[in-house]
Amino acid sequence: MTAKENIARIHELRGRQKATTLNLQKSSDDIQSLHDLQLAIEEASVVLQDVAKESQEKVKVQLASLVTKALTTIYPEEPYTFLLKFVSERGQTSVYPTLVLNGNELDPMDNSGGMAEVIAFALRIALIAIGKKPKLLILDEPFTGISALRIPLVHEFIQQMSEDLHMQFVITTHLDGLMEDADKSFIVFKDGEQSRIRVV
Questions:
Q1: Domains (ranges, CATH) in the chain?
Q2: For residue 22, is it left (φ>0), alpha (ψ between -120 and 50) or beta?
Q3: Which of 34, 120, 177, 179 is the most buried (most CB within 10 A)?
Q4: pLDDT tens-digit profile of 71-124?
Q5: What is the largest CA-CA distance in the chain?
Q6: Whether this model's pTM surpasses 0.70
């Protein structure tokens, strides 16, 4: 091989290495999204098991309707419905989340494109909304797996929840679209060895 061919081969291998690194990062982000969804579902399950049977149905409807609202706002092209199914076995009630699309039941854990993140996010909002604690949600990079094209729709949903439920959101993000219309925005940047904060 000539020197020119060797250089071309090196560039090709570097390109493949970069693509592999990006794929690994996306897989890692997807795994984190599914983990977050699983944690949110477990939290919802604990809350639902703690409430009395007569209020269980009401809470179930509240959780499901808010998650469905998130899905219809952020994925308007697909008529997703979110359901929580209760199954009592040996004195224990288990909660199974289900997505319904065109009459077909889907497992939310099998969906990609940031849907698991959206469901986990909406479940957390719903749990705070039905609780008695202050309506404040702190999120660290919550939408890394969501397509940039959907970020304006995520922003719209956050605005709706803020207004409808009188909730306050504190979000750390690299996504500019989430900072639009924020009451306050701060940029944290490095200045030599120090971190500095600038109000936007």
A1: 3-199 (3.40.50.300)
A2: alpha
A3: 120
A4: 999 999 988 999 988 777 776 777 788 889 898 888 887 766 678 888 888 988
A5: 79
A6: no
